[in-house]
Amino acid sequence: MKIHAAVFATVLFACTGASGLFAQGFSDKDKDFLKASTEDHYAEIKMAEMTLRTTKNPSVKAFATKMITDHRALIAGTKPVAAKAGVTLPTSPSATADAELLKLKVLTGDTYDKSFVDTADKDHHEDLTKVKQENAETQNPDMKKLTAHAADVIGKHTEMVDSLKAKLGA
To answer: Hey, CA dihedral for 48, 53, 55, 58, is it positive or negative?
Structure first.
């Protein structure tokens, strides 16, 4: 009888979602968010690295440096959550983001700085909305924690870039 109970418990465990222990209730939307947000982080890093090579404005350089540091940290924080979700993360920006970078690449001086700030401002406001929406909708505790932290970081970037935009008159 003990053997039957053990077999029954094993079968019940397997049927009710032993794989759930590994995937921990990640929805398809959660998984898509992990991929898309990682592409966004890579785009911000790539744009900021280009800015460090292009701008002479110390305020713009400081913001670009902060973006690189913070977005790399956000990617690092996303990796263990993605692993739990069974998601392979992208390792570069989306093709759309790369096309945006090409538009910036041909600019120089104040024109570059203003375009960079405009792009970063638009991107951060959009990303903050997406992160807050994911945080509100996800049921997964790992995603809640990840998106709450990301919202804090991106919110700070948004404030910084809003201030920089006003300073540059962009």
So the answer is: positive
**20: part of which helix (H) or strand (E)?**
helix 18-23
Eight-state DSSP code of residue 169: T
End-to-end CA distance of the chain: 77
DSSP annotation string for 91-113:
SS--HHHHHHHHHHHT--HHHHH
Homologous superfamily assigned to 25-168: Ferritin, core subunit, four-helix bundle (1.20.1260.10)
Q: To which residue do tokens 């960079």 refer?
A: 116
pLDDT digits (tens, 9 = 90+) for 116-133: 999 999 999 999 999 999
Q: How far apart are alpha carbons 136 and 71 in whole angstroms?
A: 21
